[in-house]
Each structure stands twice: as structure tokens, then as C-alpha cells.
Design brief:
By secondary structure, the protein is an alpha/beta fold. The chain is built from 13 helices and 15 strands. The protein has helices at 6-11, 31-34, 39-42, 56-65, 93-97, 101-111, 144-150, 153-170, 195-198, 200-210, 269-281, 300-316, 385-388, and strands at 13-17, 70-76, 115-121, 176-180, 215-216, 239-240, 243-244, 247-251, 284-290, 324-325, 334-339, 342-347, 367-369, 376-378, 400-405. It has a seven-stranded parallel beta sheet. Strands 10-11-12-15 form a four-stranded antiparallel beta sheet, with helices on one face. Strands 6-7 form a two-stranded antiparallel ribbon. A hairpin with a 2-residue loop joins β11 (334-339) and β12 (342-347). The longest helix has 18 residues, at 153-170. The protein binds ligand FHN.
């Protein structure tokens, strides 16, 4: 990864925001294809879209308080509705309710000191010349493949590249472009479509020409700056051809990217903190998503979850921000992260008995966990002594994190 991207592997933790016309339907961002709504019917929802409660500053402040360092907003998702002032279509937030949501977002991020990321969909179910892929409302049409063959992808490619040019020209420095997504293999109705049709190589060149320092993900369908596991935690540090790669796991708060009123699959702050720690321990980042509702409000539950993560970060952020994998092998049920000369032992559950740290013998003492779980002490001495002696109730959500010096203190 180029040095201009060092910020990314330092910052480790970002906010993903899925916000679009789909938010008004409160049923998931794929609602258009899940309900097989034809574009001319789906676009009528825009008449009701007026997110009076969307406050980009509130979102940016919540991200910052959660310990996040960057944020990525869906500028345009697969539905094709642009949340920015595109001159290439009137299917935009500006034309619909007079607001340039991307502009509000980038301004708010900068005011709060967050790096700016934009998500941009390669798929566009609204554009008349886009391939009818197997998720398209016409997918059950026998002639879908023939229709695809008749598609003029040149017109679509020019539209796609044109909107990328608008986003990377009109909104100042963009730190991260999250393209999304392509299929690796031809699918029914998708034959021969994909990177070759939207000319992924040319799009990557255009991206870097317009924003030379920008970070680009791997979802153009060609290699770029980072790998993006979709909603899973890799088993270990990620490599490509034996070389460690920069990676970022994107995760939902509740099983849905876009606001879904029926969703009940909520992850707890403890689990989310462990996922963040797990990512950093394996050399990666975590991009955690919220989905504002149709009026643009972030749900109280999502805000509360971000705030609980922030409680843990207030005390432990140096064990993840600016941190990375450790050479030491962590005992089962724990993770090590390392930052400079300091090692962080993250206990993913309250242990019973001793946690033996053979890799640290002679460098720090061992952590002794009284059987009744009443207290933890460790023999090493460190200015952060108070961070070690804690009780189950005393530890905010997430992990029990011991801040251990990796060399014996001069005592
Ligand atoms: O289809 C999208 C999905 O809606 C969501 O935006 C995720 C986020 O990583 N990306 C695609 C599925 O991988």
C-alpha cells in the first residue's frame, strides 16, 4: 500500500452509511429487486422522499464519539438514485428534495476531522442501458439474455464514468472510494457483462487521475489498494500470492445495510468491539454500518450502540487505533494487538483460572484471575496500573483489555 494510504491502516475503524431512496421503503437496500419492482414504478417513491431528519453533523459526531476515524456514504446504490447533484440525470436528491446529501456529508466529516469515503455502485437498475442482471426486476423474462445482448453498454459506461468524474471533481478531496460490485463469473442474464463492460481499468485510471491519493477497494473486479471481506472476519492476516494485504471487513449493525424496519438481528456492543479487535489483531480494519430511515433519522438503538462502543474506545482506543497484529501467540479466547512497545491482551470472555502467556515469560508477569472473577491483577508494573485491576462490572462493553509493556519495567 502506498504511503499516502498509511492513514487507513492507522485509523482502523470507520462508519459505513447506507442511505438512499430505498430507505423510504424500510425493507433493505435491495427492495427494488426483492419485490421485482420495475424502474418506472420504483422511481415513483422519490415523490415521498424528503429526509428532513437527516443531519450529517449528528452522524459525523456519533462516528467520532464511537472512536471512528473515517466514514463512507452511499453516493449511489444499485437503485440508481444519486444522493448528489449529478447533471447526468434528474434522478437525484437535489432534483427530488433540493439537497445535495453528499455535499452535506463531506462538509460534516471534515468539520469533525473524519476522513471522507464515498460508496458508488457499478450496478444501476434504473439506467435504461444497464445490463439486466439476474437480480433485475425483469429477471424472469425469458428474453432477458437477448435483451442484455441488445444493451448498448457504451452509453452506460459513459454515464458511469461521468458520475465518477462528478463525485471526484466537485466535492474536494475524497480519501476512499468504495466501488460495489461485480460478479467474478458470468451469471444468467449477466453473460459477458461486468468489468469488461464498464471498463474497470479505465475507471480505475480515471479515479486516480482525478484524486491521486485516493484509496480504492477491490470491487471494480480488478486489484486495487485493499481487499474487502463482505460481512465476515478472516481467519488470519490476509494475503494475496503470499504477500500480506491491506483489508477491511464491512459489517452491518443488524443484518441489513439499508434501514429495515423488521430487522431484529442486532449485534451487541460487546460483539462489535470484539470484531474490531479481531480485525486489528489480524492486520485489518472494520467498517461498521448504519442505515438511516426514510426521514434520514439514525435509530436510537444504532446511536446507543455506537455510544457504547465509544465508551470502550475512550479507555482502550490505543489498543486498536495505530495498532496492529502482534508476533506473540494469543491464548485461546484472547487476542493480542500491538502498538509500538506495548502489547494489548484482549480477553473475549471472562477467564477462570490463570491465563498463561508463555510468549511473554520474563517480559511481563502473568495475569491472575481470581476464580470468583472478582478481580484481576497482574504482576507487571506499568503507569496504567489502574487499567489492569478491574472487575467484570468495571469494564465497558467489549473486551477486557490489559495494557501490557512488552519489556520488563525498570523496577
Ligand atoms: O449489494 C451490495 C449490498 O447492498 C451492500 O451495499 C454491500 C456492502 O458491502 N455490498 C453489496 C453486497 O456485497
Amino acid at each position: 500500500m502506498s504511503s499516502s494510504h498509511d492513514w487507513f491502516t492507522h485509523d482502523r475503524f470507520g462508519l459505513f452509511i447506507h442511505f438512499g431512496l430505498y430507505s423510504t421503503l424500510a425493507r433493505h437496500e435491495w427492495v427494488m429487486t426483492r419485490e421485482q419492482t420495475a424502474p418506472e414504478d420504483y422511481e415513483r417513491n422519490a415523490r415521498f422522499f424528503d429526509p428532513d431528519l437527516f443531519d450529517a453533523r449528528e452522524v459525523a459526531r456519533a462516528a467520532k464519539a464511537a472512536g471512528m476515524r473515517y466514514a463512507v456514504l452511499t453516493a449511489k446504490h444499485h437503485e440508481g438514485f444519486a444522493m448528489f447533484d449529478s447533471k447526468l440525470t434528474d434522478y437525484t436528491s437535489m432534483q427530488t428534495f433540493g439537497r445535495d446529501i453528499v455535499r452535506e456529508f463531506v462538509d460534516a466529516c471534515r468539520e469533525e476531522g473524519l476522513r471522507v469515503g464515498l460508496y458508488f455502485s457499478l450496478i444501476d437498475w434504473h439506467h435504461p442501458e444497464f445490463t439486466i442482471d439476474y437480480h433485475h426486476p425483469l429477471r424472469d423474462r425469458e428474453d432477458a439474455v437477448e435483451l442484455n445482448a441488445s444493451r448498448d453498454m457504451v452509453m452506460y459506461r459513459e454515464y458511469l464514468h461521468g458520475q465518477v468524474r462528478e463525485l471526484l471533481t466537485n466535492y474536494g478531496t475524497i480519501d476512499y472510494l468504495f466501488y460495489d460490485f461485480t460478479y467474478d463469473e458470468p451469471r444468467d442474464g449477466w453473460e459477458g457483462k461486468g468489468p469488461a463492460d464498464w471498463d474497470a481499468e479505465a475507471l480505475l485510471r480515471l479515479t486516480r487521475e482525478l484524486q491521486p491519493g485516493i484509496l480504492v477497494n477491490d470491487r471494480l473486479g480488478i486489484p486495487a489498494d485493499l481487499v474487502t471481506p463482505e460481512q465476515y472476519q478472516p481467519d488470519e492476516t490476509m494475503t494475496r500470492d503470499g504477500v500480506e494485504v491491506t483489508w477491511e471487513a464491512c459489517q452491518t449493525l443488524n443484518g441489513s445495510w439499508g434501514y429495515d424496519r423488521d430487522n431484529v438481528d442486532f449485534k451487541t456492543p460487546d460483539l462489535l468491539v470484539r470484531m474490531l479487535v479481531d480485525s486489528v489483531a489480524k492486520g485489518g480494519n472494520m467498517l461498521l454500518n448504519i442505515g438511516p430511515d426514510g426521514r434520514g433519522a439514525v435509530t436510537p438503538r444504532d446511536l446507543a450502540t455506537l455510544a457504547a462502543i465509544g465508551d470502550w474506545m475512550d479507555r482502550n482506543e490505543r489498543s486498536v487505533i495505530g495498532a496492529g497484529p502482534a508476533a506473540e501467540v494469543a491464548p485461546f479466547g484472547t487476542r493480542f494487538t500491538r502498538r509500538g512497545d506495548r502489547l494489548y491482551l484482549h480477553l473475549f470472555h471472562w477467564p477462570f483460572g490463570h491465563v498463561h502467556l508463555p510468549d511473554l515469560a520474563g517480559r511481563v508477569g502473568f495475569a491472575r484471575f481470581l476464580h470468583d472473577g472478582s478481580e484481576i491483577r497482574t504482576s507487571a508494573i506499568d503507569p496504567d496500573q489502574q487499567a489492569w485491576n478491574t472487575t467484570p462490572g468495571g469494564q465497558p462493553a467489549g473486551t477486557l483489555t490489559l495494557h501490557l509493556p512488552v519489556t520488563r519495567p525498570d523496577v
